[in-house]
Predict the structure.
Amino acid sequence: MFSLEYITDSIQHWLYSTFNPTMALLLECLIIILLVTAFFGVLGLVLVLMERKVAARMQIRLGPNRVGPKGMLQTTADTIKLMMKEGLTPDGADKFLFNLAPFIVMIAAMLVLAPIAFAKGFQIWDINIGVLYVSAVSSVSVIGILMAGWASNNKYSLLGAMRSGAQIVSYELSAGLSIISIVVLSGSLQISEIIASQQTGWWLFRGHIPVIIAFVIFIIAVTAETNRAPFDLAEAESELTAGFHTEYSGMKFALFFLAEYINIFIVCAIGATLFLGGWMPLHIGHWKGFNHIMDYIPSSVWFLGKTFFLIFLIMWFRWTFPRLRVDQLLSLEWKYLLPISMFNLLLVTLIAIMGWHF
Amino acid sequence: MFIKDYISDVYNAVTSLLKGMRTTGGYFIRPKEIITQQYPDNRAQMKLPERFRGEVVMSHDENNEHACTGCTACELACPNATIKIVTKFDTTPEGKKKKALDTFVYHLELCTMCNLCVEACPTSAIKMAQTFEHSVYDRNQLLKKLNNPGSKLRAGVE
């Protein structure tokens, strides 16, 4: 059976038997850097194309269909165009911060990738505080966004960045609380252990209604955290031209654009890991035969399938709902999501203590 | 009371959002409803909406007769002087002189396709056609004479 774990293990074994440990570690780092960069590139192309196709279908259009077979190469062509373009730095901008900001956003997105388990035993870094690490590092990107808005020396950029800051700071809370409800149930912060705790069934099904509420709140909160419609006030193209990246062009703009899609992938991967069991195949209780058949589908397929399902869900939101006003955005978080998720966390804790879950 | 309002707020929000998602999700799973027309490729089988307004034409029947009496109602109705009616005087069999259409001049380059001339016409002599590929290299080619050469007023149209 196809297994990524076997490939990584054999590569690691070969490296450590051929080179001395330091050299092997360096080579491993190099391989991971190459893989992550390549993965980001491919992911950007695939997700942008997927977004455009999904958007088109939902608006009764066709979407890109001229470049390549069925428009498959449209995003590749767009990327090449962006690479060719001049990366302009405005005269009044703070040059250093202006050029630094896209890299900070991108690096924050890259760092969060570390503890995500892509398949059984296929994980860059299985730290014991994986979930905490993810929720901590993912907030770093707001620094990049604020930096971009401030350094641009443009009122639209600054307004967009300020909105983005307010938004991420508020929605971090309810996203964190819904993550904690799963941590309470599984009793661990380590990603691999959270996945292992879903051996007999995904938390979404095992945890009754409170976990479903936590899942819904998590999806709403991460949609807001990634600055996507209906919470795309940071960009708000009808009000602020393009928000915090108004002044960016060429490859620096492409980095912001790519980081947005990488962040979507990452939050959906986290959601899939916590609520839908990560790479764990669909197991139903003690149905041995059914579970065994499900095990034959490779774990990487399970993980990517769940993640792309969640990505589709978030795209579905974007092309259905109208944008919220700033005050509506904040009242949604502080008056609805936060109280509900706090109350919900109590219920989940009760379920975990009493052992009511399946 | 407050709690009741709060819960009904959340309930209404969720149900209305789900209703919206059902609509867009329905479009997503039914690709047959896509309304995009891939224009230059499907020129042969392209379907335009019934009320599409491409240009003003005058309909002639098989005897090369039209229904325009030369009343200039369309010329008066036109907001930007697109239409110019040139009239002449025909002699009826009784020896009376009668006003008739000589040339229906239509400046396509000035026309905004507002349909007011078609609505103003008392005898339904002119109508909107579906043709829309009007680009030419010289604007003189956009000046059109709508009545066919040698055409005359259909008998019985007043």
About this structure: The mean pLDDT of chain B is 85. The radius of gyration of chain B is 26 Å.
